[in-house]
């Protein structure tokens, strides 16, 4: 097969002929009210969906109290569980499954960025958390930190750089969830400072490919890199790979899956003004997908209006047998933060 290669945006881009490219941006449908998941007293964010043995759809998402401001995602976020009859909603809150574990733990403060996966007969809930090291603190100090935000000394010196990715495991979607004593990996190679935004998939080689975000090493601006680490187990140990997934464009919030039919990994991410999609045949070297920009920062509504978010982040593709069913994203508009679930029409070309 002929191929032309170039280096662009930190990825090795290889133009190849695909026999069955994944294209679904032209099948994204307008939003209705049932596709919007809001809560009166909480900001909702970070969606991840799995179909349960009960035939229902289970959403794991992060939420935090509005009374402490939007910045309290780093101090008071928790991971909650909601259920629906359809992956596009409407969703009904069931329970909170993970919260801050408290002093003396790596995940002492906040629980955020959930990704739910089932490998074998076990459910794995990946998440991020942080801590203030050995420093004593009070609940009042955490609330003050949230209200001040980025400029608070706790934020800059401890809470942001101490963020790490971990996992909790359970034999049922209803728990109980068992946490690990240590995070899954430390920043190294293509990333520095922190490991957040976990996304994981199992390849056809049986190995587990974990993508995380960190700061770009030695960067004088504010560029965040995506990196991939490999393991023979969903709980690690993970070995960081030297090649970045994306390294000279500021991106966040990867979600990844392996398409066994197409024999490719796919990943979606946000780049501030759009949702992008990349692909890989080996999980390590990534290129633009056939359709790279899958969603602009504007969402058509079924009533003919257009939703223009202030922020559109945390993309997640719920798919079955390689076919996307829903594209979910976190939306911030004014002082509201909620999750939208964009339905994807069935591919008319599939039997």
Automatic annotation (TrEMBL):
InterPro entries: Glyco_hydro_beta-prop_sf (IPR023296), Glycosyl_Hydrlase_43_Enz (IPR052176). It comes from the Bacteria. GO terms for biological process: xylan catabolic process. Keywords: Carbohydrate metabolism, Polysaccharide degradation, Xylan degradation. The keyword Transmembrane helix does not apply. The keyword Transcription does not apply. PANTHER family: ENDO-1,4-BETA-XYLANASE, PUTATIVE (AFU_ORTHOLOGUE AFUA_2G04480)-RELATED. This is Glycosyl hydrolases family 43. The lineage of its organism: Bacteria, Pseudomonadati, Bacteroidota, Cytophagia, Cytophagales.
